[in-house]
Protein 1
Amino acid sequence: MKIAVSATAPSLDAEVDARFGRCQYFVIVDPQTMQFEALDNSNAMAAGGAGISTAQMIAGKGVQVVLTGNCGPNAYQTLSAAGLEVITGVAGRIRDAIEAYKAGRFQSSAQPSVGDHYGMGMGVGYGMGMGRGMGRGMGRGMGRGMGMGPGIMPQPTPQAMSPEQEIEMLKSQAQMLGQQLNAIQRRIAELEKRK
Amino acid sequence: MPFYGAPFPYFRAGLCAPQMTREQELDFLRSQGEAIKEQLEQIDARIKELETE
């Protein structure tokens, strides 16, 4: 059995990182022997899609359980589709977290613990607004911004995933993309009405 | 498994961000929409491929 823990450093004595997709390291531990492997998370600084990419990487490592502080909806769906048990709300030293898991003190999370884009340092966007004022003019505006992700980035096929798991994962990705497409189409319709 | 693209994140409005005109926003949204449609087609094709294996 293998347990992946989001980590602040590549060691069993490091703290559990509160972020999943954008944590700096993963420590993959065999709870029986406490032998571990540390991985750099190359998605930590990704412009977008870090949760899904990280979840795919972890699923490809033959891990059965993920311990982390928080897990967003995209990563949660991807991990669940791959059949992994996700446990959020974990903090403290990795070594202690593994012992707590072995002692049965954790319960699986039935849903994501945070919303989209948790753990991103800052965002870039565009806003549009109007304001008026007297004396000290103060304006406020409302706008919505969009950032672009890294686009299509083929990744190596994780060997541990069965065709059924891959289909489930693809369906959940398609569902998310479908929702984004709907939001874009709604915004286009809204803008076209303003002619 | 191939990864068919990252979701396009929607960020909150920046405080000092340049303004985008309606036409620019429409162009941007249309190109985003096309990119997502292409990704959905790729996903659909891959699902069919897996289902026939």
Protein 2
Amino acid sequence: MNKPEKEKSKLLFLTSPIFFGFVAGSLAVLAQPVFKIQPPQAYGICIVCHARDLLNWLSILLFKYKLDSAEATITLPLFTTIGIFFGSVLSSRLNNEYRFIKTENLIKMFFWGLLVSNFGLVIMSCPTRLVLRFAFGDPFALLSIIGLLAGISIGVIFLKKGY
Amino acid sequence: MRLVIGSIFIGLVIGFLGQRSRMCFIGGFRDFLLVKDKELLKGTISFFVSAWLTIYILNLIGYLFPILKEITNVKLGNYPSISNAFLSKFGAISIIGGFGIGLFSTLSGGCPLRQHVLAGQGRVESMVYLTGFYIGIVTYYLLIVRFIGKLL
């Protein structure tokens, strides 16, 4: 390994998934006592639920129609999903990774999104919150993770067949 | 108000780091099965370990007390132990829900978090995915929740 690569490897830790897991895992738990994102518990990061709370807030604001929301967010919205989107925009612009890429499987992607959000709302979790719930010690999260791993295994068989 | 600012802060940090690390919670196990790549799996395990450690430390100091009953908003009389959870009705629904998320997320190429990050990076397919995602949430509460509600 020559010198410039060595200097790079120090910075590489900050962009590794392990560092992401450390920051996101601590933040997700600290969100409860620090930012009061509770009840329910284990609610610091959840893409499906926070998106639902945002839509519920918008729906009440615009149409006076209540969908459903967590207890903590009946009157206040959660902007986590919007934050993730703009955080990614900021990061990709700073590092010159922003590419406008078009592909052809758009109708398929629409339905995958529809199905994932519906299955996610049945158990009130996205994969991120499943891991967080498991860290809290929820036995149902363990069952969901077993189902998740089975689903991924079958999905991988489809991917190998070139679906 | 603290909740709103906190959620924006958490979102920005996760979005920024998620774009740098290409983190995906589905991708960990998928890459391990497909190409034996453990990089993303390490991220998932790191998330679990640091969340668990933070819970443990906060519990010791006295700022956080995990109450399992308050995690799901489904009304359960007695929260079952791990052996009873297998047999309960909500346990079966948990497995089916997890299975659906795993299968369709693998086919779409990433968990919802990863799709938000990819949409911010300029992928059109992820923006279409997110359109379906948000429309799915609305249709769930307008149509499907009535059928699911009878099951729970």
